[in-house]
Amino acid sequence: MAFSSVACLWKHLKAKHEGKVTALLRFMATSQGSDIQEFLRGIDRDANNGRLQNKSFSSTAQNYSIETTSNMTTSEFQETKNQCSVCQKEFTRLDNLHTHMRTHTGQKAFKCVDCEKEFSDVSSVRKHVRTHTGERLFKCDQCGKEFTHGSSLWNHMTIHTGEKSFKCDECGKTFRLQSNMQIHMRTHSGEKPYTCERCGTAFAQKTNLDRHVRTHTGDKPYKCDECGKRFTNPSDLGKHLRTHTGEKPFMCDVCEKMFSQLQQQQRHTRTHSGEKQFQCGTCGKRFAQAHHLQRHVRTHTKQ
Fold first, then answer.
1. Range of the domain at 40
2. Which residues in the chain land under pLDDT 70?
3. How many CB atoms lie within 10 A of CB 221?
């Protein structure tokens, strides 16, 4: 089966082969188009026959395999469950469950030879290595943006399609990415599965834990190419870069004033709305700006 664009292929994969996409995109990066078409024909043929079988294809770079459970019908495959004893998440493949368990145990068996950063699975270290090499194998045919990971291209394509296929059962909010929906669900459940080994503080998102850990280590891995200043978080580096470029991407909807930081725009907008979201816990007085509340609190504590 041939496709005229990545967007068309993306839609086909979403409808027909969901669950095999990451491995397929990795395979596409080093294979010829005819091999890809044969790969898709093989999956379609097995799906039509009601059976899923092991498949593996060889490229000039290395071998990749898309594996399922041999000699099992599609319905039997979908019903197979391997459940995590810690968080009850379920997996159709036992090896995926084993990989997932390392997120709870903290085991990191794979190390980057360039920076010695450790990872719990081999696919993560392979993805990480591309941050050193700068290699971007995956390109969007809609806007030309390039990605180091096939999954990033997959996620990016939803920006062009506008698809939000993941819906929160609690509040009905929809999301482009399943991972975003899962993170959102923790606002309802209160779940905080990521814990700092040093101080015990728990977080709902791993990125927040990573950011917090750097407050202990002092690590600042993000460097400004203009002045050499280093930052703990990529968002802080992004804010800093705008001091060099002069970019002001955030606009007030009321007066159209532009700002370089989102927080500045939000703070300014409250001067139009009159909103006072910061309240003194002692006397109940409300303020539009956090620093005004902080100044006011000192009037209560002042000796």
1. 6-78
2. 1-81, 303
3. 14
